[in-house]
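Quick one, T. Sequence first:
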Amino acid sequence: MFSHVMVGTGDLEASKRFYDSVLGTLGVKPGRVDTERNRIFWMSPNGMFGVTRPIDGEPPCHANGGTIGFAAASPEQADQWHAAGVANGGTSCEDPPGVRDMGAFRLYLAYLRDPDGNKLCAMHRLS
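Structure tokens:
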């Protein structure tokens, strides 16, 4: 549904370490660094994710109420994603990883904030 998602960062090295780890648990190869433009991109067959130092020179900030969701193949993979994030500078947020009953369907969700405060979610559809 999207071509790419890009978030701002104040620390490219911390972002690379964090996202290489969490996205690696989802089968995504390490990010490619564009040192000329201060950006890093992770690519998969389904889309692209990137981090950048803000072009306008202002400090990076996160969206209040915004969430970036990553597809997980299983609850176990979502748990690995969450653990990798916490081990690499992320912080757990929302409820602990687990099943959420949404009425017509059930989801397994795991939430994190990256080192810059962006809210992320690994989601696996159970039904």
